């Protein structure tokens, strides 16, 4: 077999200086964050080995600060190997904190890996084995301690193994009870330690389990109000998780905002009906991404904009940072588009016409006996109602033209 020579890839052209001076310059005050597992993803997939070398946590911190991110988030095992000794743990945390102090990068959110260890193959908080449920609580408490030590204010729970392939495995009511007991226990633990920490549940319908408990934003919201401390628990919805199931993510986020439960958000992109792809934000459906950004900005959402995504497996390390810059720049571009949408005279004329019909956000129907009688006796011109249009075709076309730069 003849060896094949490896060509040296051509050097990339330097980025223009104007990139750091334009309207989409990346700055920490935008509150953009990435997980160690996102930019640190080595390009491994179920069918192939890694295509990139592993990056150390301190190196990732310095690179994220260099490109203008606000913070970095982590699972416990992203930073500290599962089998690390106490002294090794302390050394790793010390070096990581040194990088944070050096750069000013924050750790706004932390979470626990309750899905990789084979012990969790039947779930963590909902496993049929009480020893596994105890291990999950032990691991979560230790990880909460680490997150608080690093400054985290939000703690996410993604139940990646909390589910089944067959409903013969357990009664779903029992699973919900065990899940509730675990969250109640951990809320009490946080309070007993005096931590200023809130929890956020991350819904997902399937993968890696056949079906996952708390599959959607609605499932999770309903569950929260059965907890002993519902005020401490909110949501961390993710674009890909709703989209892969064919749901409208913006609608779910709107419901979470309306309930005051959007504690954190994971931004990425996804093709419906596929495996969890975690593409760069806005890479698949810029129109949906636009309406999500517009919702967050119009609502005055003041939390982190966390990108739970990773670079294509085709990329080298430079491609990873292109990916990270792209996530942040796309958000800022769409934010500017949302501002233009809100200021566009023709778009606002259509929306004003709709509001003049009584469709404004301030329109409410409060019950009283008198009001009920008024509505019951009201004469409505149903012929006119049945014939009227709403100009949504024109409104949507104007939105598309704005996004495509034609207006």
What name is given to the CATH topology of the largest domain? TIM Barrel
Shape assignment: globular
Q: Tell me which oligomeric state these chains represent.
A: single chain
Structural class: alpha/beta
User: What's the CATH C level of the largest domain?
Assistant: Alpha Beta
Largest sheet: 8 strands, parallel
Count of helical segments? 15
Low-confidence stretches: 1-20
Estimate the helix proportion, in percent. Answer: 40-55%
Distance between the termini: 59 Å
Using the CA coordinates, give the radius of gyration: 24 Å
Strand content: 5-15%
CATH architecture of the largest domain: Alpha-Beta Barrel
Indicate the topology.
Layout (H helix, E strand, L loop, with lengths): L31 E4 H4 L17 H11 L3 E5 H4 L6 H18 L5 E3 L18 H20 L4 E5 L4 E2 L7 H22 L4 E5 L8 E2 L4 H8 L8 E3 L3 H5 L5 H10 L7 E2 L18 H13 L6 E3 L9 H27 L1 H15 L9 H9 L4 H6 L4 H12 L4
Parallel strand pairs: 1-2, 1-10, 2-3, 3-4, 4-6, 6-8, 9-10
Antiparallel strand pairs: 5-7
